[in-house]
Amino acid sequence: MNWNWDVIIEHFPRLLDGVWVTLQLVFVSGIAGLLLAVPLALMRTSSRVWLRALPFAYIFFFRGTPLLVQIFLIYYGSSQFEAVRESALWPILREPYWCAIIAFTLNTAAYSAELIRGAIQAIPKGELEAADAFGMSHALKVRRIVLPRAFGIVLPAYGNELILMLKGSSLASTITLLDITGAARTIIARTYTPLEIFFAAGMLYLLISAIMIGGFRVLERRLNRHHHYRGPEQVSRVDPRLAE
Amino acid sequence: MDLLGFGDLLLSGTWVTIKLALTSLCFGLIFGLIGASAKLSGSWIARTLATLYTTFVRGIPELLLVLTIYFGGSMVLMAIASNFGYDEYIEISAFAAGVAALSIAFGAYSTEVFRAAIQAIPKGQWESAQALGMTPLKVFFRIILPQVWRLALPGLGNLFQVLLKDTALVSVVGLSDIMRQAYVATGSTKQPFTFYMAAALIYLGLTILSTSMTTWLERRADPAARGARA
């Protein structure tokens, strides 16, 4: 067995095409999933039982089953029904790309909703009471106090979730998509150099997750500025000129 | 459970999934303990190796790990074997590749769980055990490990859930687990939704089972809940 760098270099452009597909999958479904997760989390924290039950069942199903089953259910499963095949949705559900996006969105929405619910419940009660005392309506309170605070709290955990999504996106290769893993598999089918190409693919995944982790650190410092705030007296101890 | 005559097939797949998950759990726990000991060891070589292991494995998709070990593993094994004069073709079974990939992944995550649990045990316990004349190995197995078990259980329970769901990935390289059998049943009945939904519900059942097992173990590991007295 000899390690062949040339095969990596030669096929690297195709792997980079895969990076682009992977990034699309992660970010499109990440954003759509977040949009879906917020109402789910709000419903989950509601005081009405019937409003809590629906998101509970949804989250339970999507967190309790493998992502691969969810992808197959949507991609292969939807074709079982005549009604789906004749509906206006069929051009979308026929495409592996959109099926992957739908599956990842539904999956990440379930996980993120739980994270956001935890964050909402972690908001100090006094802040919510203060908002009530100001006479804010429920909607205004949610918009101005609950959600901004929850996002600050949830951010580190959401960063982890996005990394898990990046890793999960490799499953798109099982329904013929040419993401990083899919591209690697097609290259290997021709060259039969699994070690080299999978190694290169793994490095690309590592690189993307490293960039994501860095990005989230920056975002967290910005959103949670109040954690790093230094009062005038602290700053003046470092340098009196800064306190002005 | 009949499912158009495919119920037995799905059940046999379920058994394969359970075997795969439990075997990987055993090896994964060993990898995790070794990783945690390496991370906490005094030797910087061991610490660096452990850090490399956790960073790399946690950063790449499990599917990529499964594929690499299944397709690349036999090349590596053959290269090693040819050094010893054995030149026959060696093939890795899907089950072996699955166990290897899943336990390596489980080990990387559980390294962190074990590390945190070991660090949570007060230093005084090491010192008093040493003062009683125990060797470091004895301290670790008699004093530290029994307590680590209790502290690590919730984290390990979560990781086992992830492991259970990741077993589905091994169907991609042809292991006849739940997913594969659902696919087989789909092929002749043309009812993909029915069978993948059945597969999903089986996984859901396994998840519920493992959650209740973890809760039970956590209760057993907690002296106060067991009703023990100090």
TrEMBL record, chain A:
On the tree of life, the source organism's domain of life is: Bacteria
- What UniProt keywords are attached to this protein's entry? Amino-acid transport, Cell inner membrane, Cell membrane, Membrane, Transmembrane, Transmembrane helix, Transport
Q: Which PROSITE patterns match?
A: ABC_TM1 (PS50928)
Give the matching SUPFAM superfamilies: MetI-like
> Where would I find the ABC transmembrane type-1 domain in this sequence?
19-216
Bilayer topology annotation: Multi-pass membrane protein
Report the locations given in the UniProt record. Cell inner membrane; Cell membrane
Q: Which InterPro entries match?
A: AA_ABC_transptr_permease_3TM, ArtM/GltK/GlnP/TcyL/YhdX-like, MetI-like, MetI-like_sf
- Residue spans crossing the bilayer: 20-42, 54-77, 197-219
Family statement: Belongs to the binding-protein-dependent transport system permease family. HisMQ subfamily.
Q: What is this protein called?
A: Arginine ABC transporter permease protein ArtM
Which organism is this protein's natural source?
Marinobacterium zhoushanense
From TrEMBL, chain B:
Q: What InterPro entries has UniProt attached to this entry?
A: AA_ABC_transptr_permease_3TM, ABC_transp_permease_HisMQ, MetI-like, MetI-like_sf
What Gene3D superfamilies does the database record attribute to this sequence? MetI-like
- List the transmembrane segments: 20-42, 63-86, 92-110, 193-217
Organism whose genome encodes this protein: Marinobacterium zhoushanense
Membrane topology per the entry is: Multi-pass membrane protein
Domain of life of the organism encoding this protein: Bacteria
The answer to whether the entry has keyword Disulfide bond is: no
Entry similarity comment: Belongs to the binding-protein-dependent transport system permease family. HisMQ subfamily.
Q: What is this protein called?
A: ABC transporter permease
Q: Where in the cell is it found?
A: Cell inner membrane; Cell membrane
* Residue ranges annotated for the ABC transmembrane type-1 domain, each copy included: 14-214
